[in-house]
Amino acid sequence: MQYRSDGTSMKPAPFDYHAPQSLEEAAALLTELGDGAKLLGGGQSLIPMLALRLTVFDHLVDLGRIAELRGIERRNGSLWIGAGTTEAAVGRSPEVAAGAPLLARATPLIGHFQIRNRGTIGGSIAHADPSAEYPAVALALDAQLEAFSSRGRRTIPAAQFFTGLWSTELADDEILTAISFPVWSGRCGFAVEEIARRHGDFAIAGAVVGLELDGDDRIRRCAIGLIGLGSTPERARTAEAEVVGKALVDIDPADVGHQAVSALDAIPADLHGSSEYRTRVGAVMVERAWRSASEEARSG
């Protein structure tokens, strides 16, 4: 199926529209069309960029008709989510709420319900906006990202996936097919905190925190992801390492926030805030998320 659009002022430039019915057909199209093709997931980021002519492609390959890209299920101790699963489906899933609470809590902060009804988890992660919630959650939780092309399948750890502003490890002919999140167990707590000009806007700065405590209230595991504080989503590994093994009562949340942002290289600045402002706010977001996550973990 192909369709040629008519480009007009403030509308997309002309492109051919393709709607493959299978993953193999989509991969074959990417191989055939080369650099002139762009994958279309939910379109909540790409379509506005095309409409404003901030980007131009000769071909759009719509993944929306490929059923195997949708679904949520437990697989081998992880929560598997198809890349074509909508954000709204993620947000209302009891499997996500139980298996990846951090993902469930980040979902309501994404845009508005109209956007979440169309936007997909794979589209958000593959778009790799450092101010988006899902990339930070994937990084913090050590998600595994599954990719497919005509050359075969491979799995990419989230730590290697985000390579720069709006860029990823995916090759031009690869399709992000699914994301697997490790399921935490035991005395765990999770929290997401961010600041934005309005609800639904991209975050100026934010943090996602996951904690696991042992029976003596010592930190057994810690994950801290940072939103809007770099050219990619960031992970505060130095701060994580500093607290693991320590008693929760001996940890100052403000110190965790300070250490989480102090190791960052180049915190961005734009009309929404200077680097200094983002640094201060980012530390406070980590502190708040830490307090909420630790309280939840302590309560069991």
Short description, anyone?
Helix content is 34%, strand content 25%. The chain is α+β, with helices and mostly antiparallel strands. The strands form four sheets. The chain has a five-stranded antiparallel β-sheet with strand order 4-5-10-6-7. Strands 11-12-13-14 form a four-stranded antiparallel β-sheet.
Outline the secondary-structure elements.
Layout: E1 16-18, H1 23-33, E2 37-40, H2 46-51, E3 59-62, E4 72-75, E5 78-82, H3 87-91, H4 94-99, H5 101-106, H6 113-118, H7 121-127, H8 133-140, E6 144-149, E7 152-157, H9 158-161, E8 162-164, E9 167-168, E10 175-182, E11 187-195, E12 205-213, E13 219-227, E14 234-235, H10 237-243, H11 253-262, H12 275-299
Parallel strand pairs: 1-3, 2-3
Antiparallel strand pairs: 4-5, 5-10, 6-7, 6-10, 8-9, 11-12, 12-13, 13-14
Helix pairs in contact: 10-11, 11-12
Could you explain the architecture of this structure?
The chain is α+β, with helices and mostly antiparallel strands and 300 residues long. The protein folds into 2 domains: 114 residues, Uridine Diphospho-n-acetylenolpyruvylglucosamine Reductase, domain 3, CATH 3.30.465; 113 residues, 2-Layer Sandwich (Enolase-like, domain 1). The chain is built from 12 helices and 14 strands. The strands form 4 sheets. It has a 5-stranded antiparallel beta sheet. Strands 11-12-13-14 form a 4-stranded antiparallel beta sheet. Helix 11 packs across helix 12. It is globular. 45% of the residues are buried. The N terminus is likely disordered.
